[in-house]
Amino acid sequence: MTTPRTANRRRFLQGVAAAGTATALFPSPRNVFANESPNSRPVFATIGLRNQGWAITSKSFKFADFAALADVDSNVLGANVEKVQKNQGKKPDSYKDYRKILDRKDIDAVMIATPDHWHTKISVEAMYAGKDVYCEKPLTLTIAEGKLIEKVVKETGRVFQVGTMQRSESSQRFLQAVALIKHGRIGTVKKVTCGINGMEASPVIPVAPVPSELDWDFWLGPAPKVEYRALPEMRKGYGGGVPLYSNCHYAFRNWHEYAGGKLTDWGAHHVDIACWALGASDTGPSKISPLEYTLPVEHKDGYPVVNDQYNAATKFKLRVDMPNDVEMIITSEGDNGILFEGTEGRFFVNRGKIVGKPVEDLKDNPLPDGAIEEVYGGKVSANHTANFIEAMESRKQPISDVWSHNRMLEICHLSNIAMRLGRDLNWDPNKREIVGDPQANSFLARENRKGYEINM
């Protein structure tokens, strides 16, 4: 049976073939935005609104108009509709089902801030619906999903920004770090250490009534069907208003089923900058070795034997063999940030500082004019959304493209697989598969739950 969405995809591809690739996939700037408003502002919609969803939306009001919002939690949806209306003076439409946003012709782009296990399905369907995409990091739940997104970006010609904001923001400290490496200020790089923090284990989390405002089945979506679990104590501060321990809001990052723990959370930031500086954004490691690690529950054949506690690694130290004999260490210990060590010096960078003798030496021996812009590939944008919109106008991929993101995220995914199986993994960066280990390779993909397959 041919579904409406399958038919739309076929018509889209037929249009590409009929019009010619250059014209169909890369429209002229005057035809980029579906909504021909007097000030040519693009029309956006946000899918997934808690915490980071609101953060990326609120940073974008100066650049775009928001016509619609979607979330499976009616309380979160209602609160964000009010906030958007207050900020832009016009009430956005609201939906529980994101597919109603994709069906609209007036929306140019979607911003996706759902839990990780939803990213690929929504992103792929959005691109086939003719939308450009801004998706929060980490982009995927598996390495196979990354390959699929790359294929669809290439096939559709859509612009796709990944939300690794350290490439654009944090007062350009990370851009300066990359420039220091590229201009040889520490000689030949020998080692890079990414400190990404650990996390705490959970107590046993009991089955609990599903909150009335939450569509639990839709929240699970592509993930396996399980019961909702939560403890009554509420989280304070960032992520407040939700249970301190659960298998849902905020805590989803601590479960293999929905995310990858700290490895794909903070790792998606710092490993990204490390690979960028090393010039390894289009290749990968040769080996991943789990030196020390703690899984909070027992695993058998790589899978947790219980389903009532967090299961992602709480502490870890991994060695990654990178090209040119560079050793990468990913650790939950020490400062959160990146330490670069070379034959002629070392320096440390994070969101609050960049320190070390090579940095101090800039006072008397500054980087060449344009060094930061050279790293960025042009004038540095005001923020990540601005870069996304510039890319939408030029029809070129933005600073955080899917290819470089997936290459570095493969390191994070492989690190989790290595810890779950308790052994070293040899990786072929050309074939993008684990060498000589069929069991480990079986973790590179996951099957979506029936009824939540990706509509292609």
From TrEMBL:
<feature type="domain" description="Gfo/Idh/MocA-like oxidoreductase N-terminal">
    <location>
        <begin position="79"/>
        <end position="163"/>
    </location>
</feature>
<dbReference type="InterPro" id="IPR006311">
    <property type="entry name" value="TAT_signal"/>
</dbReference>
<feature type="domain" description="Gfo/Idh/MocA-like oxidoreductase bacterial type C-terminal">
    <location>
        <begin position="206"/>
        <end position="453"/>
    </location>
</feature>
<dbReference type="Pfam" id="PF01408">
    <property type="entry name" value="GFO_IDH_MocA"/>
</dbReference>
<dbReference type="InterPro" id="IPR019546">
    <property type="entry name" value="TAT_signal_bac_arc"/>
</dbReference>
<dbReference type="InterPro" id="IPR050463">
    <property type="entry name" value="Gfo/Idh/MocA_oxidrdct_glycsds"/>
</dbReference>
<dbReference type="InterPro" id="IPR036291">
    <property type="entry name" value="NAD(P)-bd_dom_sf"/>
</dbReference>
<dbReference type="InterPro" id="IPR000683">
    <property type="entry name" value="Gfo/Idh/MocA-like_OxRdtase_N"/>
</dbReference>
<dbReference type="Pfam" id="PF19051">
    <property type="entry name" value="GFO_IDH_MocA_C2"/>
</dbReference>
<protein>
    <submittedName>
        <fullName>Inositol 2-dehydrogenase/D-chiro-inositol 3-dehydrogenase</fullName>
    </submittedName>
</protein>
<dbReference type="InterPro" id="IPR043906">
    <property type="entry name" value="Gfo/Idh/MocA_OxRdtase_bact_C"/>
</dbReference>
